[in-house]
Design a protein that fits this description.
Layout (H helix, E strand, L loop, with lengths): L1 E9 L5 H18 L5 E7 L4 E9 L9 H8 L1 H4 L5 E5 L11
Antiparallel strand pairs: 1-3, 1-4, 2-3
């Protein structure tokens, strides 16, 4: 069964670009590894310090968290955030051009 998770957080302004670079590194590694069944997107919102990640994967999948780049991203996430990240489960009502979800 597929599970959709939305994660939102705001970074401290002085580390926003560092956070974006770490996210870009995750996508570069995913582009090489091409894990099956993983749909993942990250958006920079508002003034650029707020981020939203949308993850759609099989329940229990570790395809994202197993990547070295994601582990590096996770290492300092709490120190880069103005407040702890907020996780929410979501249900896809519809999508167009957002992968095969």
């Amino acid at each position: 069964m597929r599970q959709t998770t939305v994660i939102r957080y705001t970074t401290r302004p002085e580390v926003t670009d560092e956070n974006a670079k770490l996210v870009e590194d995750v996508f570069a590694e995913l582009a090489q590894a091409r894990p099956a069944g993983l749909h993942y997107a990250t958006f920079r919102l508002g003034d650029g310090t707020e981020f939203m990640h949308v993850l759609v994967a099989e329940e229990g999948s570790t395809a994202l968290t197993d990547t070295a780049a994601f582990q590096r991203f996770q290492e300092g996430i709490r120190s880069r955030c103005a407040a702890p990240p907020q996780f929410e489960q979501a249900t896809v009502v519809g999508s167009y051009g957002f992968g095969d979800i």
